[in-house]
Design brief:
By secondary structure, the protein is mostly helical. About 60% of the residues lie in helices and about 5% in strands. It contains 21 helices and six strands.
């Protein structure tokens, strides 16, 4: 590269072709870009371990904290928002079976996540696991998919939060303008239409507040999340114990309403479609896996946090689905705040818990938004550290030890999405993104078990290959049960991501830059009977001497310096 490490420039002496052969790496680099070789390059497990040991973040989380983070992310939208919509539109009381199906699929995927989270305890979640097993291209695809998942997840829950917030204001005699608490666009049977609303201000407000909180550090976020989780679990228990006395068993008949003639509209296909939409409610354990580098003992605590939160939340989901559809006929539940609606529907005898449930819903939905917003910047930072995204996404605040720029960008995007789009569209987009991530993680476990069978795994997924294959089949079946319009949106999103990858990510990736630099200059120097090969590196000039020259004499030899 024209200079010795440590010097800005030097004079070169031309040599004859017999003495010096310079092989430019440009052609090699370009052929690598054009080939598929770089697409399957993986990142070593050992490299991830070095990254995990770097003290970049504050390690303040334990197993209990991770369980609470999981519950903070999981319990919320599935109970307080999505349950009513899926029961009214797809499954009726059969939503209970939808929760069971989704829970089984999540249990299979959760076991695979637990193995990877203990094996590769770094932020990045499914993106990191795909990079270690399937290669760079698959990692980019799943990383871009996770952007869709987390951004739209926070926005979806924020829309539900807005519904409960407006309901509380109405109880206090304050009427919030409808034009400022609903989405201006909707996608109905006749395509996109304008609703007449302006923007969803409450949804934008809560995301902005929680973005500021998460950017200030994981310690503050952990404290706030723990308080909110305790509040919402108490409120859910209160609703279950009080609401069970108002259940009308006739509301459960038929348990699975007859199909209307189209796939996904009630019947068993409706139960499957509802399970695909409800998969959105289980992405909390995915968020837990993003906290690995802020956990004191990730090899032990990550599986506990992932699986523990999954078991508790699944149980609560099934119970709430039973009570909710038992109180209210399912066709009336297509509302933004179904639990609050059920309390109102039950009459004055149950109305005493209404303020508690709505406050609990606000707390619960707030914790979901917070944890999902925390996961997204850490995935962006991981991709940035690998060179697939610009460096600003990976910058860590010197005081708060958070990827603060990625946090601000994530929050800003979620604010816009929450303000413009309705809850149904957002929920389906998040579900298909989540399901795709689960398929990739399950497939990665299968592949890494075959290619690296002797790796020390602190937690091992049981019954391999049956558990990963079962997770793939469950997630795949639920993906295909989602509406065609959701698939179209996913394809468009992925097309945009692939364009960014081939335009920026691939050529600027750390792996590609290292390959290009290693091939850029190969010089053979002949000095008397001594042969010296100089190889450039991104950070320094490494010297690999052979013959009679030692490394120190090579760097100091006038002859060698002249030839260089």
């Amino acid at each position: 590269n024209g200079r010795v490490h440590g010097e800005s420039s030097m004079t070169t002496t031309p040599l004859s072709p017999q003495s010096l052969r310079v092989q430019s790496g440009l052609s090699s680099w370009w052929s690598r870009i054009q080939s598929i070789e770089g697409l399957t390059d993986t990142k070593s497990i050992e490299g991830f371990h070095l990254e995990a040991n770097a003290e970049t973040f504050h390690r303040v989380l334990g197993a209990k904290d991770l369980v609470f983070f999981g519950l903070g992310a999981i319990i919320g939208a599935g109970i307080f928002v999505i349950t009513g919509h899926t029961a009214a539109e797809y499954a009726g009381p059969g939503i209970v079976l939808s929760f069971v199906i989704s829970g089984c699929g999540c249990a299979l995927a959760g076991l695979c996540y637990a193995e990877f989270a203990a094996l590769i305890p770094v932020m990045g979640s499914a993106y990191t696991y795909a990079y270690a097993s399937l290669g760079q291209f698959a990692a980019w695809v799943i990383g871009w998919d996770l952007m869709l998942e987390y951004l739209f997840s926070a926005a979806t829950v924020a829309v539900g939060w807005s519904g409960y917030f407006v309901s509380i204001l109405n109880d206090m005699g304050i009427v919030f303008p409808a034009a400022l608490c609903n989405a201006p666009f909707d996608d109905g049977e006749d395509g996109w239409k304008v609703t007449g609303s302006v923007i969803n201000v409450p949804a934008m407000f809560i995301i902005a507040v929680l973005t500021i909180l998460m950017a200030r550090g994981v310690h503050h976020s952990n404290t706030v999340n723990t308080v909110m989780v305790v509040v919402k679990v108490i409120v859910i228990a209160l609703f279950l114990f009080a609401g069970v006395f108002f259940v009308q068993s006739e509301n459960w008949h038929p348990f699975i309403p007859e199909n209307t003639g189209s796939f996904g509209s009630f019947g068993f296909s409706g139960v499957m479609r509802a399970s695909g939409v409800l998969f959105f409610a289980y992405i909390g354990f995915d968020s837990v896996s993003c906290m690995a580098q802020e956990t004191r003992n990730p090899q032990r605590d990550m599986p506990i946090g992932i699986l523990g939160s999954l078991v508790i939340s699944s149980t609560l989901y099934i119970l709430v689905g039973l009570v909710l559809t038992g109180i209210v006929p399912y066709h009336l539940l297509s509302v933004p705040a179904p639990v609050a609606f059920a309390i109102d529907y039950a009459g004055s005898q149950l109305r005493w818990i209404r303020p508690f449930v709505k406050l609990g819903a606000l707390a619960g939905l707030s914790s979901v938004i917070l944890v999902t917003l925390m996961g997204q910047p850490r995935i962006l930072a991981s991709m940035s550290n690998d060179g697939l995204l610009p460096p600003l996404f990976g910058q860590v605040h010197t005081t708060y030890k958070t990827p603060y720029k990625a946090s601000i960008i994530t929050g800003a995007c979620a604010v816009v999405i929450a303000g413009l789009f309705p809850i149904g569209i957002l929920g389906e987009l998040v579900s298909i993104g989540t399901l795709f991530a689960f398929i990739i993680v399950c497939a990665s476990v299968l592949l890494l078990r075959k290619t690296r069978p002797n790796l020390e795994r602190p937690f091992r997924t049981p019954l391999v290959p049956y558990v990963p294959i079962g997770g793939i089949l469950f997630a795949g079946a639920q993906m295909f049960s989602l509406p065609p319009s959701t698939w179209v949106r996913l394809i468009i999103w992925m097309a945009v991501g692939l364009a960014i990858y081939f335009y920026y990510g691939r050529t600027n990736s750390l792996a590609m830059r290292r390959a290009a630099t290693a091939a850029e200059i190969e010089v053979e120097l002949t000095t008397d009977n001594t042969r010296l090969i100089a190889v450039t590196d991104t950070s320094s000039t490494s010297w690999a001497p052979s013959g009679s020259l030692s490394p120190s004499s090579a760097s100091e030899s006038p002859s060698a310096r002249s030839h260089t």
